[in-house]
Amino acid sequence: MPSDVGTSAFHRICKFCTQSRVAVAVCCASLMTLGFVTVMAPQEPVSASAGITPTEAAAAAGDPLPGLTAADGTVLAAIERYAQIAAQPTATPVPPTATAIPPTSTAIPPTATAVPPTSTPPAQPSPARPIVENAPPTVAAPTSTPVPPPPPPAPSTLPSGLNTSPMDAYSQVLFDDTNRRRASQGLPPLRVNGYLIGIARIRSQDMADHNYFAHVSPVTGDNAFTLMDKHGVSYGWAGENLAKNNYPDGEAVGVADVALWNSPPHRENILNPHYTDMGIALVVDPSGMKYFTIIFSGPA
């Protein structure tokens, strides 16, 4: 602070700040301004024509702090104005209130285009399939064993140990179909022979029990001719046709007949002019496979 202002100016400022209840920070700013203005403001001496010294002017004005120059008065006046401005109450800013934007009253209409349903329906779980007990129908190629006429054995006793009861309905149908085949070729029908039916039953049962399909049993080693010999069935000519399939009951006989007729060796047995008698048997195994056996015979 310049020395010519002296302590009197400082006391004057402090007195003003106390009377005006100005904050200390404003007074400090005033003192700083006082120093700055005092340095920058040119000091002009009071005119002599006035005939009043600075001390007298201060005393005449009732100033308790004499000894200030005109420049000091200018500075003090500026400080007083600054302090008055600072002492005025400051406007408290009102915090802005948040104004909620009301929702629009116009709802967005839904789109008019609906998604078309897919043409493919959703996959549904497949229902459980019933277990097929029978394998796909199969037709085994029937076999035949034409036998040249052996010398007729001398019948000593009647055949024995054979089931000579009448044929079942399915065997009877195949019997009739076979005779129709013979009749179509101008041959006489064959007669029913109970002993041959008994031999045919042994053969079909053995194949069903041991799951094979052949003219010779892999278990006993027997065939139709050894069985005829063991049971005392006389013959001069003899033959055997075999067929098997697992077709439904209403189709099994027809399938067997066609398979036998379409096989040249079996057709030869069916059309053999030396045969006079015939016996047929059918046995079905637990799986549904049907075993047909046809036994032919004729005199020597």
Strands of the widest sheet, in order across it, are 1-3-4-2
Round the mean pLDDT to the nearest integer and report it.
71
Strand content: 5-15%
Characterize the overall form.
rod-shaped
Between the first and last Cα atoms, what is the distance in angstroms? 166 Å
Describe the 3D structure.
This protein has 300 residues and is α+β, with helices and mostly antiparallel strands. A hairpin with a 5-residue loop joins β3 and β4.
Which characteristics define this entry?
single chain, 39% helix, alpha+beta, 300 residues, 4 strands, rod-shaped, four-stranded mixed beta sheet
Describe the SSE topology.
Blueprint: H1 6-20, H2 24-40, H3 54-60, H4 70-87, H5 169-184, E1 191-192, H6 194-210, H7 224-230, E2 237-245, H8 249-261, H9 264-270, E3 277-284, E4 290-298
Parallel strand pairs: 1-3
Antiparallel strand pairs: 2-4, 3-4
Summarize the structure.
The protein is of the alpha+beta class. The chain contains nine helices and four strands; from the N terminus they run αααααβααβααββ.
